[in-house]
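Q: I have 548 residues here and want to know how they pack in 3D. Can you give me a structure?
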Amino acid sequence: MTDGPLIVQSDKTLLLEVDHEQAEDARREIAPFAELERAPEHIHTYRLTPLGLWNARAAGHDAEGVIDTLLRYSRYAVPHALLVDIADTMDKYGRLKLVDDPVNGLVMVSNDLSVLEEVLRQKKTAGMFGKRIDDLTIVVHPSERGHLKQALLKIGWPAEDLAGYVDGEAHTIDLAEDGWSLRDYQRQAAEGFWHGGSGVVVLPCGAGKTLVGAAAMSMAKATTLILVTSSVSAQQWRDELIRRTSLTDEEIGEYSGARKEVRPVTIATYQVLTSRRKGVYPHLDLFDTRDWGLIIYDEVHLLPAPVFRFTADLQARRRLGLTATLVREDGNETEVFSLIGPKRYDAPWREIESQGYIAPADCVEVRVSLPDSDRLAYATAEQQDRYRLAATAKEKVPVVKQLIAKHPDEPTLVIGQYLDQLADLAEELKCPVITGETKLKERQSLYDQFRRGELPVLLVSKVANFSIDLPDASVAIQVSGSFGSRQEEAQRLGRILRPKQDGRTAHFYTIVVRDTVDAEFAANRQRFLAEQGYPYRILDAEDLSTTD
């Protein structure tokens, strides 16, 4: 027993004392297998989940290593039953394996007859198997490869997929490393993915996820389908691939609302793929138009349900998911695990920051109060209306002005969820605003003006949450968001994390109305960043003028 920073409890929670001298070391070592639940000022609560332990197992961590970490950092004796449970849970991953048999094709092999019998008797797996070859081996219908992995995960026996992948249509793609080279972590991420064949790479915003995708493409040397969040993102991918690889403009197609180009490298938006006509998805056949050797899912945490369903049929293709935050508020992390693949690489934000690749950030929660008249209106409002009432409170406007005045020479983004709130702010601040309705050409023009320093302040809706390259932005002011979304909070911080030429710190402010659901949602939004080592300072709006 040591004076460690962790208290390990039998209900699978880990309590981390933030101010302990070993807290950062412990946080780093438990991150691969424990999920942060709550992050108040002094004690952070993590939870052990089967999915977290299986992700760790797939990434090469074993039960012995996990148990050793807990024993080393725990202040008190670790409950024996918990240690046994960890070992048993992690042992479940890989008891069932999908492999390619030279005679029978796709088969499932088990090292435990009772597990195989249990699985075969489940309703969820009915109709997915062919003939029984021997006691421990059974044929799997190739079309059921993805659906079977989903079903097995749900019944608690995640399969290890070793069945391999088709090469797809060959297409030469090389990295053009002239005057630049991949960073060590980008190379490790690409190699980790390639070794596993499919899976997810988690890197902070601004850390160069596109280059990891380009490196994977140069390894595959095959036709590639890239799925992205928007037309702006598609253009950024195109520009980056032309700049960093041997690909030419003619080899890259864009498949979006405006264009329908299918080329050796095709970039498609999730929006066009999931558009419906008369109850059908006419564009999902894009997956079948070519013999793709690699499919890249940008911002994989946003993967829409129809694409999940189609991905289940693509298990023979190599699949790379890229994200900064592998958290989904809908709980569909299990779908990402079973259909895209497990985490192959996960770099802590602070580690990348210490290497100088992303800017250090100061996160501040500024709390404002509602006047009595508005408090009464809030108290008597319907539950579903309360968040909007609090999030769009007019008391936030003078705080925004104060914060902008506090950073007069720094490019500033003001980010909000509600269009009428942004319109009012645009009028008050005399600044342009970008929303989903802003035409692509105008949007690009405003971004370019901001990059050149001609626009010191830019208002943006949730369209700027993802894949927007604004390297000089160093201040972000969040006035409202999508309820308690952890990934949105992280993405918004990511807008200002590109390293600055003068090495200055980025500033992230979130303005919250105290004693409302706005404050409750803010606490949930901050959980992922707290896990990455970004504590929020809390300031009262009235004290703002007196602080540095």
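Q: Anything worth noting?
A: The longest strand covers residues 361-368. The chain has four domains: 6-92, 96-162, 184-352, 359-546.
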